[in-house]
């Protein structure tokens, strides 16, 4: 029973992280129709930034978030202006190929900069506390609450502010949004900035709990895809729910199926994806736009 | 005794809560020409998509040649003898006119091995005959994208005719076409119907086109069937007039 | 059937050179390559040539599903890996009690068939979906297979890998790969001209239209993927034999997929002669320009891929005016209307 509760807790904490990790991917897809295959690599970039700051300034990763988020917002903004803007309205193949190229470039750039050796951020409080016989890892709990906070903030931003309304309008109907006077390019750039910043922030947040290496990104991209298909495009509650499902399944399999361990994450999310696709081959509809819209 | 060829029973289809087609019954009999009219957004094209299984219906059944084809794939239906054209022209712009015709060749009874068979000489001859019939034969080596709008419509009709179908669904075959060419299309459709016994189901905005060709007309309004009858009956039907001109 | 009495017999005016020129050049090239070992060449040169042949084969296979059918496959290396591992497992151990260890020639077709079966079962699920789902599902399959291979320690040796019996026969390897390449490229030439190829192009250009014209699109895509997977599996099996050592990291190498994509894009997506041309160009660039900067190889490839898609999506052959490549641009480029 304790083992089960322990696994459930780990799964929930992991799921909360997945929920925030997937947001950037899901919103970028929902608003601009760009499937970002470099998603995990931006997460990796965030983790490396946190590591860099920890090493050079001995800055706590959660404090360096304050620097990483604005920095990566600028990166995302510029990326949209320079690269992604050329991809909107173009068929999916172009986006996939370009973001695939971006993914490879980013991963290998980091390999050249920091070598392929795994790095870690050993924070002092990287332990766990016992609560009713269940050990609660401190860092993961902090990540979980930060994730919930970020999600609520994004939710408020999308639902309550003028900018959020503009973003949602741009997702629904680009031309109509243009006609009512929304500066669509700026809205897109800001959206991309937010998405990239969130992704890198998620990477920075988990840096204390995980080895950081240039090729760590790809599994996250794949998991983000599965969670998005599971939870719906650009839907924040859906992202949280999908993240929870994947997180709990992953931990449960690692706990109860012998001989597999934690290295089975990608295969598991793929199996989950295939099952969803078999059950609902038409894809899931979403808060922002129909998922399998014909864009070819 | 008239023989039902294509039949839709109680077809309903909605998109994210918006009902596009509501419980429409439609029967097309062998050898007839039937019109389908209605104001913009009345669900004509959605009904078409449902009838040829491009869109799965929410409720209702579709019968073709007496068989229940509700769950069929569009390509199966096409090989059973149903062909259609599209409102937004779907031709292969980067291929030549002849290649376009060959894509839509006779696909009867396709199995794994049939994939690798190349088409008979006969198919090419047929394609050329059809192009001549549609007054396009001088363009057969031209890229389809270079054709004028009307010629592209004709080519699409040609592609629909290639597999020698029993029923052809025409979706706004005359929109954006000059009157001379409309007459050509009309004349060709008449020949196909009278000499070869092809069945037609035609979506049209041009009422004259419909009343010249069709013996029976079905009117859709806001996804529901409003009326059905001969063109003259329809023209005097109160509900139809109200739907088109009222309010 | 007769629609018009005066159906005149049009003479085939298609220029002879345009129709057969590529093939004649190809046969001449193959003839030259068959004689090449008789000139004074070192083993290293033969080995390099074998690598180019392998790249051509892989890229041509990728081009069949990615270029001609329009389904971008980011995990094609999975078929290579499955082929390699089938070869490794079958020649080093006897997984079934009754089956003895197999020889290279016995294991080869099995490796290809297993890759084909994997392709069919994967395609059955993923190819019914929109293209982007397929792309990412394949990427996922690739990463997942690497994980699974690592976990199945008793069969695959896990992370430690498998050692194959060492055989050094550069000449034999050269001729084997030359033959595989000849078969693959010639089949793709034939497919491009056949009705099957025409249907694949139709699927790429407008899948709904193709479906409505009676083309069983799922079956066609499945067959295309199966063919591509079979030959990729064969190539992988050969690679394992040649390399005499396999482990998950050297077999399931991401850069291999990147090279397949790049080679096709560079030469001309959806063309027959694009991959061979692209392979030669890419291999030359790699060896002349990048050989001193091995670290930067993949970074450069990634950036080059972005630039190709944005600024030269039609590839070299497209620049020279090959129509089948030009129509492939439409898949990638559609911005003329926009601004």
Percent helix of chain B: 25-40%
Helical segment tally of chain B?
9
Q: Structural class of the secondary structure composition of chain A?
A: mainly alpha
Tertiary shape of chain A: globular
Helix content of chain A: over 70%
Low-confidence stretches of chain A: 285-296
Describe the largest sheet of chain A: 2 strands, antiparallel
Mean pLDDT of chain A: 80
Q: Please state the overall shape of chain B, judged from the principal axes of the Cα atoms.
A: globular
Total E-strand runs of chain A: 2
Structural class of chain B: alpha/beta
Radius of gyration of chain B: 18 Å
How far apart the termini of chain A lie comes to 51 Å
Main sheet makeup of chain B: 6 strands, mixed
Oligomer: heterotrimer
Order of helices and strands of chain A: HHHHEEHHHHHHH
Uncertain runs of chain B = none
Strand order of the largest sheet of chain B: 6-7-8-3-9-10
How many strands of chain B?
10
Overall pLDDT level of chain B: 83
**How large is the share of residues in beta strands of chain A?**
under 5%
Describe this entry's structure for a reader:
The complex is a heterotrimer of chains A (about 300), B (about 250) and C (about 350). Chain A has a domain at about 15-215. Chain A has eleven helices and two strands. Chain A has helices spanning about 1-30, 40-55, 60-80, 90-115, 140-160, 160-170, 175-180, 185-205, 215-230, 235-255, 265-280; strands at about 130, 135. In chain A, a hairpin with a 2-residue loop joins strand 1 and strand 2 (about 135). In chain A, helix 2 crosses helix 8 (about 185-205), helix 3 (about 60-80) runs antiparallel to helix 8 and helix 5 (about 140-160) packs antiparallel against helix 8. Chain B is of the alpha/beta class and about 250 residues long. A six-stranded mixed beta sheet of chain B has the order 6-7-8-3-9-10, sandwiched between helices. Chain B has a four-stranded antiparallel beta sheet with strand order 2-1-4-5, with helices on one face. Chain C has about 350 residues and is mainly alpha-helical. Chain C is built from 16 helices and two strands. Chain C has helices spanning about 15-35, 45-70, 75-90, 105-125, 130-150, 155, 170-195, 195-205, 205-210, 215-245, 250, 255-265, 275-290, 295-310, 315-320, 325-330; strands spanning about 160-165, 245. Chain C is globular, with a radius of gyration of 21 Å. Residues about 1-15 and about 335-339 of chain C have low confidence and may be disordered. Chains A and C meet through helix 4, helix 9 and helix 11 of A and helix 5, helix 12, helix 14 and helix 16 of C.
